[in-house]
Amino acid sequence: MRQSPATIRDVARAADLSVASVSRVLNGHSNVQQDTRERVLIAVSDLGYVPNAAARSLSTARSDAIGVVLPDLHGEFFSELVRGLDKAASERGYMLLLSTMHASSALASQAIAAMRGRVDGLIVMAPQIGADDMGYALPVGVPTVLVNSRGELGRHIMRVDNGAGVRAMVRHLLDTGRKAIVHIAGMADNLDGAERRDAYLAAMADMAPTLPTRVLEGDFSEVAGERLTRQLLDEGASFDAIFAANDMMALGAVMALRGADIAVPGQVAVAGFDDVPLARYLSLSTLRVDAAGVGERAIARLVDEIQGTAGPATLELQVPQLMVRATTVAG
Amino acid sequence: MRQSPATIRDVARAADLSVASVSRVLNGHSNVQQDTRERVLIAVSDLGYVPNAAARSLSTARSDAIGVVLPDLHGEFFSELVRGLDKAASERGYMLLLSTMHASSALASQAIAAMRGRVDGLIVMAPQIGADDMGYALPVGVPTVLVNSRGELGRHIMRVDNGAGVRAMVRHLLDTGRKAIVHIAGMADNLDGAERRDAYLAAMADMAPTLPTRVLEGDFSEVAGERLTRQLLDEGASFDAIFAANDMMALGAVMALRGADIAVPGQVAVAGFDDVPLARYLSLSTLRVDAAGVGERAIARLVDEIQGTAGPATLELQVPQLMVRATTVAG
DNA sequence: CGCAAGTCTGTAACCGGTTACATAAATGGC
DNA sequence: GCCATTTATGTAACCGGTTACAGACTTGCG
Q1: Cβ of residue A58 closer than 8 Å to a chain B Cβ
Q2: How far is CA B163 from the centre of its chain?
Q3: Residue nearest to nucleotide C7 (CA to C1')
Q4: What pLDDT, on a 0 to 100 scale, did the predictor assign at position B102?
Q5: How far apart are CA B285 and CA A328, in angstroms?
Q6: Which of B60, B167, B316, B328 could join B269 in a cystine, given CB atoms 3.0 to 4.6 angstroms apart?
Q7: Which residues of B touch A137 (CB under 8 A)?
Q8: Could you report the per-residue pLDDT of B281-300, keeping only the tens digit for each?
Q9: Positions in chain A short of pLDDT 70
Q10: Nearest CA to A244 among A268, A209, A208, A260?
């Protein structure tokens, strides 16, 4: 019973015209007579005809779709990013083809290969992949914008300016009198995790060379923040500030401190990174990264590349904004 | 310089074989000799060949992609849903083609039409569209699962059991001694908004026919919750509980009450709906809707339909779970 | 050894669009 | 009224895969 849908030839037959005329009408070409146009439109609506996108993109070598490769959809950062991508893409008439890439670079190139012929360009966010593997995974000749990723020359890269963000927060903590700042880092092989950790060490060496530093390796999860903080307390470490590499770990730290009846920010200040929506509700001091804005700008740049109107590829840094809230300074 | 990528014919030429053999090797058919297989694989890797998905789906009439039409990506409910969809889809070898549909049903059918030929099936979530418009917008012969939407016979529908959820919360509020429960509703034309409002009125009439009822129309946004609550306070209304149609409005209500120095839950209890991650952190009593789980189940059902192994279409209700937290009962 | 069955490979049609080119008709300038 | 130009339409090739069918070559069995 499931009859196959009408094709352009069915429409041509119904309108007693050639497929070329039908195609011209449907694509809004000017060289068609009014009468022809009407007959086509009537036939289209009678048959409920909808052009087949696969056939169209095969012959035009365009798909009006943009591939998005993300490490995982977990967390608010990603959903904000996708929201920005979607907004900018639909404004420009593109759809989004989503693919999550679980960890390994082999799976990454597989995910990217599966998009060949389906998309006009790629947005790739893969902070855990090294520059070499990335170069290997990315297809040649397909416009690509990398987000928060390591990458090779010749591809546009958009990144959060982790160094600037970390420096701003370290300065803020020092300015408010903190003397022993502990950093809870993300995974070491994650680009943002590594950059934030290195920036913390560099900022401390630069601004307060006499103060102690300490880095604990977490994994960006709330439970890691909580566990590592409890570990610090258990070993009786002396510290008056925790600067976590993202908000979720910072929230975990807050929970652990509250559980141990340690005043925040009275005894220990806590800061995060990202400014996820939760951070505002829980008054967490952090660095605001406009994920939706990054997504929108990534699409804008990618569409420019697809249309060949883009300038030279660059490394585009977005400086996060320091958000001082109640976990670092008393209200 | 951007040379066009290799085609199957290039591979055939390089391996000195026919395109049919190359295709057979690539699709893992058994009737190919070992030697042939190796020559193909060598040529593929030499040329960096990747099959063109558009061509493949044109000739096979399959795309291995699932279209997802959502009203908007705002809010945690959607990001959770998309996460569930993505997980289940990638487990089954499908990609997700995302499209947001801003409000009108005309745009909805446009978004759906744009997917014709690109996807093997559709997940449509459009709580603001009436059953008639929905029937008109959906393509015939394309497997479809509707999520939280009005819909016609013959299509599988997955919905949150708003009635059960609302009844559970109303009972909880009454059990804890509340006598004047105000409902802040969502948009009236939104399916969930309407169902929750009606269920509130029905539950009150049923369980506490002598108590007063009141409905204020909001729009699911935090600011609406805040504004309407302030309005209640300004007019000196007497109430001891606010039951909002979603968590964000409930949070807005909490903010407004705090701002007016009214104790929660001491003087006024507040409850939401959805159990977004924020709700847990802010100890909001609410009804848990497992959005990721809904997404996963929707994909599972859709893939069954695509493969023709699905049972008859039904209306599948998911009963939300009552989460009692600190905004309705004192700790 | 001859024939049937089975295995492997190649040719070419097909999926459903777009579009270069050819053709036919209409228009305009002289 | 004739030829050049413009405009509208049709024919058929093409995009890059898959696959039905045919043909060539083995293999097995009587």
Answers
A1: yes
A2: 18
A3: B31
A4: 67
A5: 29
A6: B328
A7: none
A8: 899 999 999 999 999 999 99
A9: 1-3, 73-74, 102-103
A10: A268
